[in-house]
């Protein structure tokens, strides 16, 4: 190895004493990557200070190859410029700080860090943290990432022990795996992307299916995500979240012909779901905004009214699905909002009839009648209103028959019916479950065509009375409230 330069000798002495070596204003600020590697291996300094290698404002020349390195001291390279990618594949460090540094890429697949990984303010093309295990926090606040064919951040299967912070990150990528890839990641603590701006071409802005967060996920306070991916812009399918999911004051857009902005299929949210509907946009192409089939949450969602949710589910989802309606109704019912729960379940049946398409014409007719007369079992007293209308019509019919002389007493004694007997005839005609004996004292004469018409009309009213009474009982007892 070539002789150490003056700057490198300062770095070696700093590693022995634990001092920060600041080369920001030095005329000679070049440090070879191999010197840093040797320091971490114990060369040049037999007894390095536990504070580790601490360097600021240096120009790192050559490749920093730390593949399979297992170091006992931390590495701090802040405000540094690197000529080549940083290679930390399978490396094991107590702590790593690359804050405010510039490099083309960080290759840290299966990297292990016993404490924090600090990437605050970095500028690079991409971060590869696939399968990394970070016991502390990962902080990439204000990072600037612009990748061409790879994800800006590929953290598939990463394990983080104390929170992942991507606040105010700007990330762009042209990759089918997306700009931020967190497939199968496990994060203890919060996952924060407040004010982050993610843009992807040919892939999702966030690709985080089967993500596990033992905390909250914040996509708010100016968070923006955009893509043209038909699989969705923000994909959180199968996500497990113990805290809240917050999309307040954010913007999620998909400009593809068919892709949704948000995918939460089978996701579980353990606390509040904050989802204002205006944050979702399809770029004016199609009406599909979100796929929420299988999403579960314990409380009434915040940020939107139940009517806004119904509009999303019925007009801006890919296809009819019963579960999102049932989940929304369950949350409202648990909160004591019975009226809203009924509205939601009725809206579900309307969507089922419109997009679920009941099989068979007879079933479609019955489904339509159920909605019109008893609100699919959720408004049974509506049937009593129709039954009251039948009673009124029966009364008018009986009075008209009496006035026309076709409502008469059975012989003997014969003759016209009294008003009380006419009322009894109307009641017996319209109320199938309540017999007042009016038909024994007054009946429609069938000796004339007019009397026969009234007699047939009475049977029609009697059948309608039975129908509405049956619908009321079925709706009140819940016999027709089966989810479709």
3D architecture notes:
The chain has ten helices and 41 strands. The chain has 484 residues and is α/β, with parallel strands linked by helices. It has three domains: 1-106, no CATH class; 137-304; 381-476.
Biggest sheet character: 11 strands, parallel
Cα Rg: 37 Å
- Identify the strand order in the major beta sheet: 1-3-6-10-13-17-21-25-29-33-37
Strand segment tally: 41
**Count of all domains:** 3
Key descriptive features of the protein:
10 helices, eleven-stranded parallel sheet, 484 residues
How are the elements arranged and paired?
Elements: H1 6-17, E1 21-22, E2 30-32, H2 33-40, E3 53-56, E4 59-61, E5 64-65, E6 75-78, E7 81-82, E8 86-87, E9 92-93, E10 96-97, E11 105-107, E12 112-113, E13 117-118, E14 123-124, E15 126-128, E16 133-134, E17 138-139, E18 144-146, E19 153-154, E20 159-160, E21 164-165, E22 170-174, E23 180-181, E24 186-188, E25 191-192, E26 197-201, E27 206-207, E28 212-214, E29 217-218, E30 224-227, E31 234-235, E32 240-241, E33 245-246, E34 251-254, E35 262-263, E36 268-269, E37 273-274, E38 280-281, E39 290-291, H3 306-315, H4 322-334, H5 338-356, H6 361-374, H7 381-403, E40 407-408, H8 419-430, H9 438-441, E41 443-444, H10 449-476
Parallel strand pairs: 1-3, 2-4, 3-6, 4-7, 5-8, 6-10, 8-11, 9-12, 10-13, 11-15, 12-16, 13-17, 14-18, 15-19, 16-20, 17-21, 18-22, 19-23, 20-24, 21-25, 22-26, 23-27, 24-28, 25-29, 26-30, 27-31, 28-32, 29-33, 30-34, 31-35, 32-36, 33-37, 34-38, 35-39
Antiparallel strand pairs: 40-41
Helix pairs in contact: 3-5, 4-5, 5-6, 7-8, 7-10
